[in-house]
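Researcher: Next sequence.
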Amino acid sequence: MCEESGSGGSASERSIPNAFAVEEGMELESQSVQRCEEAERAVFEEQNVRDVNELRDLVEGYRAQNEFLNKEIVLLHKMVRSLEERERGWQRQFAEVEGCYYQMKSRYLMVLNHFKSPEKPSIMMEPGMLQQLMAEVCRTSRDSLDKTDALGFYLKGRTEEGSSNGDLLDLAAECADKGAQSLEAARLEQSKENMLWLQSWDAFVVNWVGRPLVESQELKNLIRTGIPEAYRARVWKGLIQMTLKEKLSEFGNGYYSSMLRKTLFQQESGVYDTSIKQIDLDLVRTLPANRMFADPDSEKVKQLRRVLYAYRNHDTLIGYCQGLNRIAAVALLYLDEEDAFWFLIAFTELQPPGYYASNLIGAVADQKVLRDLVTEKLPRLAAHLRQFEVDLSLFALSWFLTCCVDVLPHQIYLPIFDVFLYEGNKALFRFALAILKMCEPAVLQSKTVSTVHACLSKPRQYVTDYKSLAQVAFNDMNPFPQKQIETKRALYLTQLQASLLFIILFGGNLF
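Model: Next structure:
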């Protein structure tokens, strides 16, 4: 019941996307029990059918049901195979990290013994041996940077921050850290809390089969905990259909292809388009931490180009805005390119009008709303920022435009996308305030403008996991009335539109 994500890479370099099995004997909701009773009554009623036409209809119904169940069985087999391959991938990764760690430890002890007694070294090393050991260690560290996770993101340790300068102790500690992180990830995955979370999603998906997604408190609560990797593609598609139900019905099948043909016709006609030019420039800068988007000739980059070209013709008012490439790329991690196209449409429609306009007027208005909310909910932080005359929008604007893709690791921003697809723009205010709340202690300790900027420009230092972020966003930030946000937004939009008119007439800057 899962959909394959469009990730690349060999099995030796990556593990299979996170998946899980449906627990045997899993408790289902009372609704599912009621459905079973209704199905049982229907069977008894069918036994009394004598009309030939009705019997034919029943046969056709059972045939269709059988085909559907067969497809579900095939998907379940794929899930089992994914689980098995994923388990083997974890075992390989553990073995590699453990082996690397013990190699480092052995080399460190060799060097330590050499310098322990200068007069009588316990181990005599030939000239150049120390340099050779250091070179091997550094080469091992560089090789580890080429490995990626299931989605194509590079697996980097402390070397990505430049903390390791080739020192043997630093590199050995890095391997120890990686091993500890892998063991901790495995422990959390097998924890009771995680298993209950997976069972809750299993129960929901089992009851959801064959029906469109509809808004419910159960679904809202589940999505706020994050969508499991194995179900993310499926749930995202359901959320897209829920958001764009009328548009999908209006445009029909083949709309994406027609947008691509329109782009091709424009190019063949020699029409110069600044949006297309900007798209081409931004492609390889989209997700620099992901190998699948690093090569301009890679399949993912080609898909991304087509999605952005098609969107440019779909919404001529927006055309293209920097940041849309990141949103489309995130969609392509899980969806095929046509679904990624609809994902991009759903994402932009869940934002208020003017968010991706050339002047970003909608996004600028929301930055003013955020400033008011920070003053209300985080008064000490707001006062500290005013003291140093720090403009919060310099940092938070990109959070709202791209769901924090630029400032948080993918393990954290992907669940933010989950929530945004269900709750829309309001969720971005919750997460922005939560990020600021988690950065607040460091910001308040900052004594200069530069240190304040350093804290807010790299929130990943303080936001280390999604669970903690969600706890702050959905509990500590309550109450959070939507009407208050809409009222403030309308006020600031009116002011900005007046300022924009003044700029047009007399010149100036909206920001």
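Model: The radius of gyration is 27 Å. The mean pLDDT is 81.
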